[in-house]
Amino acid sequence: xxxRFLVVMLLLTSCGHPSGVMTPVALTAATPKTTRVDMLVATxxxxxxxxxxxxxxxxxxxxxxxxxxxxxPPNRKAGTVQWPKRLPPNxxxxxxxxxxxxxxxxxxxxxxxxQHMHNGHALVFIHGFNNKYEDxxxxxxxxxxxxxxDATPILFTWPSRxxxxxxxxxxxxxxxxxxxLEQALRTLVNxxxxxxITILAHSMGTWLTMESxxxxxxxxxxxxxxxxxxxxxxxxxxIQVFAxxxxxxxxxxxxxxxxxxxxxxxxxxxxxxxxxVSRLGAIDPTVEPYRTKLEEAGITAIDLTKVNSNDxxxxxxxxxxxxxxxxxxxxxxxxxPLTDSNVTxxxxxxxxxxxxxxxxxxxxxxxxxxxxxxxxxxxxxPPKKKKPTTADETLxxxxxxxxxxx
Length: 406
Prior knowledge:
The protein is of the alpha/beta class. Helix content is 29%, strand content 21%.
Protein backbone atom coordinates (compact mmCIF):
# COMPACT_ATOMS: atom_id res chain seq x y z
CA UNK A 1 0.00 0.00 0.00
CA UNK A 2 2.76 2.46 0.91
CA UNK A 3 4.63 1.73 -2.34
CA ARG A 4 1.44 2.35 -4.33
CA PHE A 5 0.90 5.65 -2.51
CA LEU A 6 4.48 6.72 -3.28
CA VAL A 7 4.05 5.91 -6.97
CA VAL A 8 0.89 8.04 -7.15
CA MET A 9 2.63 10.93 -5.38
CA LEU A 10 5.62 10.71 -7.71
CA LEU A 11 3.32 10.98 -10.71
CA LEU A 12 1.48 13.92 -9.21
CA THR A 13 4.61 15.85 -8.24
CA SER A 14 6.61 15.33 -11.41
CA CYS A 15 7.52 18.59 -13.10
CA GLY A 16 8.96 19.48 -16.46
CA HIS A 17 10.75 22.77 -15.85
CA PRO A 18 14.54 22.89 -16.29
CA SER A 19 16.80 23.06 -13.25
CA GLY A 20 19.55 25.59 -12.74
CA VAL A 21 17.95 28.99 -13.36
CA MET A 22 19.88 31.06 -10.80
CA THR A 23 22.53 32.36 -13.23
CA PRO A 24 21.61 36.03 -13.80
CA VAL A 25 20.50 37.13 -17.25
CA ALA A 26 20.69 40.67 -18.57
CA LEU A 27 17.68 42.77 -19.50
CA THR A 28 18.11 44.49 -22.85
CA ALA A 29 16.47 47.46 -24.51
CA ALA A 30 14.38 45.02 -26.53
CA THR A 31 12.98 43.33 -23.41
CA PRO A 32 9.36 44.32 -22.70
CA LYS A 33 8.77 46.10 -19.43
CA THR A 34 9.00 43.57 -16.61
CA THR A 35 8.36 43.71 -12.87
CA ARG A 36 11.32 43.34 -10.53
CA VAL A 37 11.19 41.72 -7.11
CA ASP A 38 14.20 42.17 -4.82
CA MET A 39 14.49 39.73 -1.94
CA LEU A 40 16.96 38.77 0.76
CA VAL A 41 17.48 35.02 1.03
CA ALA A 42 18.73 33.33 4.20
CA THR A 43 19.49 29.64 4.02
CA UNK A 44 20.92 26.69 5.91
CA UNK A 45 21.56 24.88 2.62
CA UNK A 46 25.05 23.94 1.51
CA UNK A 47 26.55 26.08 -1.29
CA UNK A 48 26.60 24.09 -4.51
CA UNK A 49 29.58 25.85 -6.07
CA UNK A 50 27.52 26.24 -9.24
CA UNK A 51 26.12 29.70 -10.10
CA UNK A 52 23.21 28.00 -11.88
CA UNK A 53 21.90 26.54 -8.60
CA UNK A 54 23.79 28.47 -5.84
CA UNK A 55 22.73 26.03 -3.10
CA UNK A 56 21.80 22.35 -3.00
CA UNK A 57 19.65 20.29 -0.66
CA UNK A 58 22.35 19.31 1.84
CA UNK A 59 22.83 20.95 5.25
CA UNK A 60 25.39 23.61 6.00
CA UNK A 61 26.60 24.41 9.54
CA UNK A 62 26.91 28.07 8.55
CA UNK A 63 23.85 29.99 7.34
CA UNK A 64 24.25 32.09 4.20
CA UNK A 65 22.71 35.35 3.00
CA UNK A 66 22.13 36.29 -0.64
CA UNK A 67 20.36 39.20 -2.29
CA UNK A 68 18.42 38.04 -5.37
CA UNK A 69 16.62 40.04 -8.05
CA UNK A 70 13.86 38.32 -10.02
CA UNK A 71 12.29 39.66 -13.21
CA UNK A 72 8.63 38.77 -13.81
CA PRO A 73 7.31 38.91 -17.38
CA PRO A 74 4.31 40.98 -18.45
CA ASN A 75 0.99 39.57 -19.68
CA ARG A 76 1.03 36.57 -17.36
CA LYS A 77 -1.75 34.82 -15.48
CA ALA A 78 -1.74 35.69 -11.79
CA GLY A 79 -1.04 32.77 -9.47
CA THR A 80 1.39 31.07 -11.83
CA VAL A 81 5.16 30.85 -12.18
CA GLN A 82 6.37 31.04 -15.77
CA TRP A 83 9.24 28.57 -15.75
CA PRO A 84 11.51 28.69 -18.82
CA LYS A 85 11.15 25.84 -21.28
CA ARG A 86 14.85 26.17 -22.09
CA LEU A 87 17.89 27.95 -20.69
CA PRO A 88 18.80 30.72 -20.42
CA PRO A 89 15.38 32.15 -19.50
CA ASN A 90 13.78 34.77 -21.72
CA UNK A 91 12.67 37.67 -19.45
CA UNK A 92 9.97 38.59 -21.98
CA UNK A 93 8.13 35.33 -21.26
CA UNK A 94 9.81 33.69 -18.23
CA UNK A 95 10.64 34.33 -14.63
CA UNK A 96 14.35 35.16 -14.68
CA UNK A 97 17.03 35.95 -12.14
CA UNK A 98 18.62 39.28 -13.05
CA UNK A 99 20.93 39.80 -10.09
CA UNK A 100 22.68 37.82 -7.34
CA UNK A 101 24.79 39.34 -4.57
CA UNK A 102 26.35 37.33 -1.77
CA UNK A 103 25.94 39.02 1.62
CA UNK A 104 28.95 38.26 3.80
CA UNK A 105 27.99 39.87 7.12
CA UNK A 106 24.95 40.85 9.18
CA UNK A 107 26.04 44.47 8.72
CA UNK A 108 25.79 44.07 4.94
CA UNK A 109 22.39 42.47 5.40
CA UNK A 110 21.20 45.42 7.47
CA UNK A 111 22.46 47.77 4.77
CA UNK A 112 20.46 45.86 2.15
CA UNK A 113 17.37 46.06 4.35
CA UNK A 114 17.70 49.82 4.85
CA GLN A 115 17.92 50.32 1.09
CA HIS A 116 14.96 48.06 0.29
CA MET A 117 12.62 48.60 3.25
CA HIS A 118 8.96 49.30 2.42
CA ASN A 119 7.45 51.44 5.19
CA GLY A 120 8.97 49.22 7.84
CA HIS A 121 6.99 46.10 6.81
CA ALA A 122 8.88 42.80 6.41
CA LEU A 123 7.49 39.54 5.01
CA VAL A 124 9.36 36.35 5.90
CA PHE A 125 8.44 33.36 3.71
CA ILE A 126 9.34 29.78 4.68
CA HIS A 127 8.72 27.21 1.94
CA GLY A 128 7.52 23.65 2.32
CA PHE A 129 8.53 20.08 1.55
CA ASN A 130 10.04 19.06 -1.78
CA ASN A 131 11.48 22.46 -2.80
CA LYS A 132 14.73 23.38 -4.50
CA TYR A 133 16.37 26.72 -3.76
CA GLU A 134 15.11 28.15 -7.04
CA ASP A 135 11.57 26.85 -6.44
CA UNK A 136 11.23 28.90 -3.28
CA UNK A 137 12.83 32.00 -4.85
CA UNK A 138 10.39 32.04 -7.77
CA UNK A 139 7.40 31.21 -5.55
CA UNK A 140 8.10 34.13 -3.23
CA UNK A 141 8.59 36.45 -6.20
CA UNK A 142 5.20 35.35 -7.56
CA UNK A 143 3.47 35.88 -4.21
CA UNK A 144 4.96 39.35 -3.74
CA UNK A 145 4.04 40.40 -7.28
CA UNK A 146 0.51 39.01 -7.31
CA UNK A 147 -0.44 40.18 -3.82
CA UNK A 148 0.77 43.74 -4.45
CA UNK A 149 1.95 43.77 -0.86
CA ASP A 150 3.80 46.74 0.60
CA ALA A 151 6.57 44.81 2.34
CA THR A 152 10.22 43.82 2.00
CA PRO A 153 10.39 40.12 1.04
CA ILE A 154 12.75 37.85 2.94
CA LEU A 155 13.03 34.15 2.13
CA PHE A 156 14.24 31.55 4.58
CA THR A 157 15.02 28.36 2.67
CA TRP A 158 16.00 25.22 4.53
CA PRO A 159 17.72 22.06 3.16
CA SER A 160 15.22 20.07 1.13
CA ARG A 161 16.37 17.36 -1.26
CA UNK A 162 13.29 18.05 -3.40
CA UNK A 163 12.38 14.37 -3.65
CA UNK A 164 9.07 12.85 -2.63
CA UNK A 165 10.98 9.90 -1.11
CA UNK A 166 13.05 12.23 1.11
CA UNK A 167 10.20 13.24 3.42
CA UNK A 168 12.02 12.15 6.58
CA UNK A 169 15.24 13.91 5.54
CA UNK A 170 13.35 17.12 4.86
CA UNK A 171 11.54 16.92 8.21
CA UNK A 172 14.84 16.53 10.06
CA UNK A 173 16.22 19.45 8.05
CA UNK A 174 13.53 21.70 9.47
CA UNK A 175 14.62 20.71 12.97
CA UNK A 176 18.22 21.35 11.95
CA UNK A 177 17.24 24.88 10.88
CA UNK A 178 15.22 25.99 13.91
CA UNK A 179 17.90 28.12 15.55
CA UNK A 180 18.97 29.69 12.26
CA LEU A 181 15.41 30.87 11.59
CA GLU A 182 15.17 32.15 15.16
CA GLN A 183 18.38 34.12 14.65
CA ALA A 184 17.07 35.56 11.37
CA LEU A 185 13.87 36.68 13.07
CA ARG A 186 15.81 38.21 15.97
CA THR A 187 17.97 40.13 13.51
CA LEU A 188 14.84 41.60 11.94
CA VAL A 189 13.29 42.36 15.34
CA ASN A 190 16.45 44.24 16.38
CA UNK A 191 16.63 46.26 13.16
CA UNK A 192 15.31 49.81 13.80
CA UNK A 193 14.10 50.03 10.19
CA UNK A 194 11.69 47.13 10.73
CA UNK A 195 8.36 48.12 12.29
CA UNK A 196 6.48 44.84 11.95
CA ILE A 197 7.01 41.32 10.64
CA THR A 198 4.58 38.98 8.90
CA ILE A 199 5.57 35.32 8.65
CA LEU A 200 4.10 33.30 5.79
CA ALA A 201 4.95 29.60 5.99
CA HIS A 202 3.84 26.71 3.81
CA SER A 203 3.49 22.98 4.38
CA MET A 204 6.47 21.51 6.26
CA GLY A 205 7.84 25.02 6.64
CA THR A 206 5.03 25.67 9.12
CA TRP A 207 6.60 23.09 11.44
CA LEU A 208 9.91 24.94 11.27
CA THR A 209 8.11 28.22 11.91
CA MET A 210 6.24 26.97 14.96
CA GLU A 211 9.36 25.37 16.41
CA SER A 212 11.40 28.57 16.01
CA UNK A 213 8.66 30.75 17.48
CA UNK A 214 8.32 28.31 20.38
CA UNK A 215 12.07 28.55 21.00
CA UNK A 216 11.92 32.33 21.01
CA UNK A 217 8.98 32.32 23.38
CA UNK A 218 10.65 29.92 25.80
CA UNK A 219 13.87 31.98 25.83
CA UNK A 220 12.16 35.33 26.34
CA UNK A 221 8.87 34.41 27.98
CA UNK A 222 6.92 35.74 24.98
CA UNK A 223 7.42 36.80 21.38
CA UNK A 224 8.53 40.28 20.42
CA UNK A 225 5.60 42.48 19.43
CA UNK A 226 7.16 43.23 16.05
CA UNK A 227 6.20 39.70 14.97
CA UNK A 228 2.61 40.74 14.33
CA UNK A 229 1.11 38.16 11.96
CA UNK A 230 1.77 34.47 11.37
CA UNK A 231 0.10 32.84 8.35
CA UNK A 232 0.31 29.06 8.08
CA UNK A 233 -0.66 27.71 4.65
CA UNK A 234 -1.46 23.99 4.42
CA UNK A 235 0.28 23.37 7.75
CA UNK A 236 1.87 19.92 7.84
CA UNK A 237 1.73 19.65 11.62
CA UNK A 238 0.21 17.07 13.93
CA ILE A 239 -2.80 18.85 15.45
CA GLN A 240 -1.90 17.89 19.00
CA VAL A 241 1.70 19.05 18.56
CA PHE A 242 0.54 22.38 17.14
CA ALA A 243 -1.53 22.97 20.28
CA UNK A 244 1.58 22.51 22.43
CA UNK A 245 3.75 24.68 20.20
CA UNK A 246 1.15 27.43 20.24
CA UNK A 247 0.78 27.33 24.02
CA UNK A 248 4.48 27.23 24.81
CA UNK A 249 5.47 30.34 22.84
CA UNK A 250 3.92 32.43 25.61
CA UNK A 251 1.66 35.49 25.57
CA UNK A 252 0.97 37.84 23.99
CA UNK A 253 1.08 36.00 20.68
CA UNK A 254 0.95 37.23 17.09
CA UNK A 255 -2.32 37.05 15.14
CA UNK A 256 -2.50 33.55 13.65
CA UNK A 257 -4.23 32.64 10.39
CA UNK A 258 -4.30 29.12 8.94
CA UNK A 259 -5.25 28.06 5.39
CA UNK A 260 -6.76 24.57 5.29
CA UNK A 261 -8.15 22.27 2.60
CA UNK A 262 -9.67 18.84 3.12
CA UNK A 263 -8.72 17.72 -0.41
CA UNK A 264 -4.98 18.33 0.09
CA UNK A 265 -3.30 15.20 -1.30
CA UNK A 266 0.15 16.12 0.03
CA UNK A 267 -1.20 16.30 3.58
CA UNK A 268 -3.00 13.01 3.03
CA UNK A 269 0.40 11.52 2.12
CA UNK A 270 1.95 13.06 5.23
CA UNK A 271 -0.81 11.66 7.41
CA UNK A 272 -0.38 8.23 5.82
CA UNK A 273 3.37 7.98 6.50
CA UNK A 274 3.11 9.42 10.02
CA UNK A 275 0.69 6.85 11.35
CA UNK A 276 -2.55 8.35 10.00
CA VAL A 277 -2.32 11.29 12.38
CA SER A 278 -4.50 14.23 11.32
CA ARG A 279 -2.64 17.26 9.97
CA LEU A 280 -3.66 20.77 10.96
CA GLY A 281 -3.97 21.86 7.32
CA ALA A 282 -6.58 19.20 6.53
CA ILE A 283 -9.17 19.88 9.25
CA ASP A 284 -12.69 21.13 8.65
CA PRO A 285 -12.69 24.25 10.83
CA THR A 286 -16.47 24.60 10.67
CA VAL A 287 -17.09 21.50 12.78
CA GLU A 288 -16.57 20.85 16.45
CA PRO A 289 -14.34 20.66 18.35
CA TYR A 290 -12.12 22.67 15.96
CA ARG A 291 -14.48 25.61 15.62
CA THR A 292 -14.65 26.23 19.36
CA LYS A 293 -10.96 25.56 19.95
CA LEU A 294 -9.91 28.01 17.23
CA GLU A 295 -12.33 30.62 18.56
CA GLU A 296 -10.95 30.25 22.08
CA ALA A 297 -7.41 30.71 20.79
CA GLY A 298 -8.27 33.66 18.55
CA ILE A 299 -7.03 31.82 15.45
CA THR A 300 -8.53 32.59 12.02
CA ALA A 301 -9.06 29.58 9.75
CA ILE A 302 -9.69 30.00 6.03
CA ASP A 303 -11.06 26.92 4.31
CA LEU A 304 -9.94 26.57 0.69
CA THR A 305 -11.44 23.13 0.07
CA LYS A 306 -13.85 24.36 -2.61
CA VAL A 307 -11.34 26.63 -4.34
CA ASN A 308 -10.23 25.30 -7.73
CA SER A 309 -6.50 24.93 -8.33
CA ASN A 310 -4.15 23.91 -11.11
CA ASP A 311 -2.06 22.15 -8.46
CA UNK A 312 -2.78 18.44 -8.78
CA UNK A 313 -1.98 17.99 -5.10
CA UNK A 314 -4.26 20.87 -4.00
CA UNK A 315 -1.38 21.86 -1.73
CA UNK A 316 -0.53 25.33 -3.04
CA UNK A 317 -3.95 26.95 -3.31
CA UNK A 318 -2.94 29.87 -1.09
CA UNK A 319 -0.44 31.04 -3.72
CA UNK A 320 -2.20 30.00 -6.91
CA UNK A 321 -5.53 31.73 -6.31
CA UNK A 322 -5.14 35.43 -7.21
CA UNK A 323 -7.88 36.41 -4.77
CA UNK A 324 -6.35 34.51 -1.86
CA UNK A 325 -2.86 35.91 -2.55
CA UNK A 326 -4.31 39.43 -2.56
CA UNK A 327 -6.14 38.63 0.66
CA UNK A 328 -2.74 37.89 2.21
CA UNK A 329 -1.07 41.05 0.91
CA UNK A 330 -3.92 43.52 1.22
CA UNK A 331 -5.83 42.26 4.26
CA UNK A 332 -4.01 39.87 6.56
CA UNK A 333 -0.69 41.73 6.45
CA UNK A 334 -2.33 45.09 7.11
CA UNK A 335 -4.56 43.91 9.94
CA UNK A 336 -7.80 44.68 8.10
CA PRO A 337 -10.95 42.68 8.90
CA LEU A 338 -12.19 39.92 6.64
CA THR A 339 -15.86 40.60 7.22
CA ASP A 340 -16.61 43.92 5.55
CA SER A 341 -18.22 44.64 2.19
CA ASN A 342 -14.91 45.30 0.43
CA VAL A 343 -13.83 41.65 0.47
CA THR A 344 -14.28 40.24 -3.06
CA UNK A 345 -12.92 36.72 -2.85
CA UNK A 346 -15.74 35.07 -4.70
CA UNK A 347 -19.38 34.10 -4.79
CA UNK A 348 -20.99 32.81 -1.61
CA UNK A 349 -18.08 33.50 0.74
CA UNK A 350 -19.27 33.06 4.33
CA UNK A 351 -17.75 33.83 7.70
CA UNK A 352 -18.41 32.28 11.08
CA UNK A 353 -17.66 34.91 13.71
CA UNK A 354 -18.33 34.00 17.28
CA UNK A 355 -20.71 31.28 16.14
CA UNK A 356 -22.66 33.55 13.77
CA UNK A 357 -22.63 32.74 10.05
CA UNK A 358 -22.37 35.86 7.89
CA UNK A 359 -22.26 36.37 4.15
CA UNK A 360 -19.23 38.45 3.22
CA UNK A 361 -17.86 39.88 0.01
CA UNK A 362 -19.45 40.36 -3.37
CA UNK A 363 -19.17 38.58 -6.67
CA UNK A 364 -16.06 39.75 -8.51
CA UNK A 365 -15.53 39.34 -12.24
CA UNK A 366 -12.38 37.28 -11.65
CA UNK A 367 -13.56 35.63 -8.47
CA UNK A 368 -13.06 32.05 -7.42
CA UNK A 369 -15.68 29.90 -9.11
CA UNK A 370 -16.83 28.07 -5.99
CA UNK A 371 -17.23 29.12 -2.37
CA UNK A 372 -14.67 29.00 0.38
CA UNK A 373 -15.43 29.32 4.05
CA UNK A 374 -13.80 31.79 6.40
CA UNK A 375 -13.89 31.46 10.14
CA UNK A 376 -12.65 34.58 11.87
CA UNK A 377 -12.28 33.98 15.57
CA UNK A 378 -12.56 37.16 17.63
CA UNK A 379 -9.93 38.08 20.18
CA UNK A 380 -11.90 37.67 23.39
CA UNK A 381 -11.82 35.90 26.71
CA PRO A 382 -12.42 32.23 25.96
CA PRO A 383 -15.73 30.69 27.01
CA LYS A 384 -15.90 27.94 29.54
CA LYS A 385 -13.95 24.94 28.28
CA LYS A 386 -16.11 22.32 26.62
CA LYS A 387 -15.38 18.66 26.86
CA PRO A 388 -13.96 17.50 23.52
CA THR A 389 -15.50 14.64 21.59
CA THR A 390 -13.09 11.83 20.77
CA ALA A 391 -9.34 12.05 21.21
CA ASP A 392 -8.48 11.46 17.56
CA GLU A 393 -10.71 14.35 16.46
CA THR A 394 -9.54 17.03 18.87
CA LEU A 395 -6.71 19.43 19.52
CA UNK A 396 -6.10 17.36 22.66
CA UNK A 397 -6.29 19.84 25.44
CA UNK A 398 -6.34 23.56 25.68
CA UNK A 399 -4.27 25.84 23.52
CA UNK A 400 -2.50 27.11 26.61
CA UNK A 401 0.49 25.86 28.53
CA UNK A 402 -0.05 23.04 30.99
CA UNK A 403 2.16 22.62 34.05
CA UNK A 404 3.31 19.21 35.28
CA UNK A 405 2.66 20.24 38.89
CA UNK A 406 0.58 22.91 40.57
